[in-house]
Write a structure and sequence with these properties.
heterodimer; A: mainly beta; 11 strands; 0% helix; 50% strand; B: mainly beta; 4-stranded antiparallel sheet; globular
Chain lengths: 122, 111
């Protein structure tokens, strides 16, 4: 079964660093087609926001202007895992974060992770 | 103003047909860009309903269909069922605007 499995929910304090993960299984992370992994934020009771995407072929990252400089994407293809990282959390980062797969950055997101809820206390 | 605008809510009785629109604030959707649709049941991750060329991934009922007309796209759901009650989002890639955009989402209530 093709799936993305995300790390568990997190509770952290403002100013702390945090790294959450998204592990792929049932498909080859880097054998053509080389997939993109997107990160999508959903704040409580709100809609979906694209944060950006990372290309697993060479780790080229594209950030939404709204998230540029606020987060960092990375990937370790040897363990089929992508990461989303914050260096200094803010209370406004409280949200559920989804990873999602696409064949191209322009393509639909055909596989989604189950979501990681991040709660940041001030 | 959102790049992709959806109605906040729609409703219909079981068995009826509903349509959800997604209108681009610019002419992007009217060009060569594709619009995709997702369903999100509360408490779960979104799932892809309509992909490129208005195809449905495996497992999506043929009651769901997508269409485009000028700067707008629409998702139609026929034969409404209680399990269709969810939020629906449109999605498009707009390179001139810096990347991927979602519509604000539409809550479907099955009466």
């Amino acid at each position: 079964e093709v799936q993305l499995v995300q790390s568990g929910n997190e509770v952290a304090e403002a100013g702390e660093s945090l790294k959450i993960s998204c592990r792929g299984s049932g498909f080859t992370f880097t054998f053509p087609p080389n997939y993109w992994i997107a990160w999508v934020r959903q704040m409580p009771g709100k809609g979906l926001e694209w944060m950006g995407s990372i290309y697993l072929g060479d780790s080229d990252s594209r950030y939404s202007p709204s998230f540029q400089g606020q987060v960092t994407f990375s990937a370790d293809t040897s363990i089929t895992t992508a990461y989303l990282q914050w260096s200094s959390l803010k209370s406004s980062d409280t949200a559920t974060y989804y990873c999602a797969r696409s064949v191209h950055i322009r393509s639909p997101f055909d596989v989604w992770g189950q979501g990681t809820m991040v709660t940041v206390s001030s | 103003q959102s790049v992709l605008t959806q109605p906040p809510s729609v409703s219909g009785a079981p068995g009826q047909r509903v349509s959800i629109s997604c209108t681009g604030s610019i002419s992007a959707i009217g060009g060569s860009l594709d619009v995709y649709w997702y369903q999100q049941v509360p408490g779960t991750a979104p799932r892809l309903l309509i992909d490129a060329n208005n195809n449905r991934p495996a497992g999506v009922p043929d009651r769901f269909s997508g269409s485009r007309s000028g700067p707008s796209a629409s998702l139609a759901i026929t034969g409404l069922q209680p399990e269709d009650e969810a939020h629906y989002y449109c999605h498009s890639f707009i390179s001139s605007m810096g990347g991927v955009f979602f519509g604000g989402g539409t809550k479907l209530t099955v009466l």
